[in-house]
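Give me the fold.
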Amino acid sequence: MPGLQLPEPSMEKLERSPLELVVCQIRYERNLAVTDTRRALEVQERLGGKYPVLDQAAGIALNILGGTSGMSTASEQQHGWNFRSTDGAWTVVLMPEFFALETRAYTDWADFSTRLNELVLLVVSAFDPSLEQRVGLRFIDRVKDPVIHSPEGWEGWIDDRLLGPALHSAFAPAIKACQQVLQLDGGDDMEVLLRHGCVPEGSPDDSVWHYVLDHDCSRSGGRAFSSDSIRNCTERLHTLALAVFQASVTEKLFGYLRGDA
């Protein structure tokens, strides 16, 4: 199966950016040293005061067990750390099986990737992971400007081929929410999970309809953990995410978000 064939995306900064959340998560082999308070505090300190607020984090790990009676699953509580910026806009998550950087205050890729590469190098120095299992880069866009008052109102703004039921003459007036999921071969060992659709906000009598484009771009499969490889991978995933976003919207919407009108 051929991967996505999309034009090289524009790298222009959008004046009316619809980005709500950006997350990069890197999974590695389980490392319980992450739970050690002293070592976690060393990582936080070496991040240079960017994330001074410290919280314990908890999660559930699902283990698949095999035996004479067949396969079974068992859940296990895991503990780690959240380091947050003072305003709460940036968070570093450090867990035994993954670490992540997330923000609701994304300005540009140069800033995000600089912070991410710094975090990767510190994880390598502190915990020496040997196996990369997955690198995921997720962008969640919520387009709420322009203001649209019905699902079919997104015609001309979102590519018609994605709108589907919103353009169905019988279905559109009855839609209460519309979401679809596409699993796409991103080519070059990458994958895209695109969740998209329109959702109402406000009272039923006076609602506006936002359009959500949630791109989760990833590379999976075990390989030697390498900060250089991860840096190159995230650059490619960023380019792929931009290309998917720009293929999902019309030139009219892209120009509007760019600030042309």
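The first strand starts at residue 19 and ends at 28.
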